[in-house]
Amino acid sequence: MLKGRYEGKAWKFGDNVSTDSIAPGRLMHLRSNPEEFAKHVLEDANPEFPKNVKPGDFIVADSNFGCGSSREIAPLIIKLSGVAAVLAKSFGRIFYRNAINNGMLLIECDTGKIKEGDMLIVDFDKAEITKKDDKEFRETFNLQKTEKVIVNAGGLLDYISSNNSLDDI
Amino acid sequence: MPKTLVEKILSNKVKHDVKPGDTIVADVDFTACHDGSGPLALRLMKKRNWDGVFDPKKVMFCTEFGPSPAKELSNEHSLIRNFAMKHNCYWHEGGTGNIHTHLLEDYVKCGDLIVAGDSHTTTHGALGAFATGMGSTDMLCVLRMGKTWLKVPESYLVQVDGELPKGVYSKEIFLKLLKDIKSDGAIYKALEFKGSTIESLSMDARFTISNMGVEAGAKVAIMETDETTEKFLEKMGRKNDYQKIKADDNAKYAKTIKIDATKLEPMVAAPHYVENGELVRNIKDLKVDIVFLGSCTNGRLEDLHIAADILKGKKVAPWIRFIVIPNSHKVYLEAFKDGTFTTLAEAGAMIQAPNCGPCMGVHQGIPGDGEIVVSTQNRNFKGRMGNPNAFVYLASPATAAATALKGYLTDPREVL
After folding, report:
1. Sequence-ordered list of residues with C-beta below 8 angstroms from that of A11, at least 6 positions apart, any chain
2. Is the previous residue joined to B77 through a cis bond, with omega within 30 degrees of 0?
């Protein structure tokens, strides 16, 4: 839900992290087994990530995170790894849709001042990001209307199931 | 109000005037899923106890990695094949083409709203369609309800004028655009291509540009339709699917990007980003291991002809693996009949059945550690071709063929 307060460690990535880096095509045979696939999430971008990511951690990237293919397994295995939210300057648009369709939290914001290992507090009620150990730092963000509607419904299919229609999205 | 191509098509779809930023829900004219996006959509369908599609005459399924390279994928193939058969949807077996070539040869009409489960659905913008890729959940929504939600994008006008110099092709137009605006340069936007260069291109060449639209982040990469479009559809046996689609003269664009085609030179995108455009003549002594001519970007008949013209009566370098994959069964048969395959095979090409091959690292031709690949495909991301320790350069079919011949990255002007 796009509500409440989340606290966790930042894993920092650069520009243009593609879905090939998140969920490599060479592992396409694992798409029917997402739990197994999740053991390889982002391993080409940072081999330590799948081994050491903890539930509640954040992925923090520069621009165009999730660029590339339409494979929905990419946000799915990020979600399975326990990541609380992905913060980036911008997202590949298909990745963005896929993520919110699965009820995953994405935040578009200026990530320039967040470093690897920073302990972040993301507060959806205040729409702000702060650091646990740096009182000076504060970033705000806006959420898109459609993102709020879909994520708060639990994902697109839950939205459709409870509304029986797409027309008023 | 004068309208862009996007505003025209989407206003027409929802029967009222739309502007950038509006959220609309629109009926989809045709949709398709492959072995990447289809299985998850169908598993989600089953989980919800839904069954069937909104209209089987508007739905196509296909496999792209066929014949299958692994038992897990064979099972995924069975899942979507059985569903397509049960519900009388259109079906294309792996080894007869990729999703986009099936779509453009057999299904997409000018002015359509096309949503398919693959990012390179932008390809069909070359037919004057609003065509965009989505993932499995959105695809399930389309399969069940025949509609989708969209935010009307702002349009960037890409104005390309002048005659392409010798050795330069439509691939260079897009690689140059990517170098200029970068791979996040058109996120959430529409690219509308216009100008004398675009008008002079064949459909085969136009599809290359629209195909790569998503590499700049674009939602669609669309072109006006003309006699070339009409003749193409006629050749595909679909003359009635033609419609003149033109933007209004005073349409408002969020940005205009100009490309002077006369100044372009053969270009590659160096590893590992599509925006890393470099002139071929500036990269010296790059020994290459694999040349791949194929993919939904450049595996059409014109592309095979360009390569065959360069390789006729010659042999590729002995250390090169030269993989050729035609785009579809139609292209395959034509290349057999007109002798193109004989020319390429005599030059040393390994010709494979129409599928996605090694482009995504799933099939037939994965590079080894440290190996250099020159490929006509659309992505060179780290690990894209199945090995994060390989290096992929994106190139035109002419640069690919010249490179296969010499064994080193070669400017095609040296051999033309």
Report:
1. A46, A49, A53, A57, A58, A59, A60, A116
2. no
The whole-angstrom separation of Cα B65 and Cα A29 is: 11
| DSSP states of B358-370 | GGGTSSS----TT
CATH superfamily name and code, B8-260? Aconitase, domain 3 (3.30.499.10)
- Which residue does chain A place closest to B43, by CA atoms? A32
Query: How many CA atoms lie less than 13 Å away from B137 in the CB half-sphere?
Result: 25
The DSSP output letter for A118 is -
Each residue's pLDDT tens digit, B288-330: 999 999 999 999 999 999 999 999 999 999 999 999 999 999 9
Task: Give this prediction's pTM.
Answer: 0.97
Question: How much is the ipTM here?
Answer: 0.96
Longest dimension (CA), chain B: 61
User: What's the token pair of residue B306?
Assistant: 């360009």
Candidates A44, A67, A108, A156: best to mutate against B (most CBs of B within 10 A) is: A67
- Please list every residue in chain A whose beta carbon sits closer than 8 Å to the beta carbon of residue B189: none
- Which residue type, as a one-letter code, is found at position B59? V
Distance from CA of B302 to the nearest CA of A (A): 26
Containing structural domain, residue A70: 5-142
Look at the domain B267-414 and name its fold: Aconitase; domain 3 (3.30.499)
Asked whether the beta carbons of residue B383 and residue A44 sit closer than 8 angstroms, the reply is yes
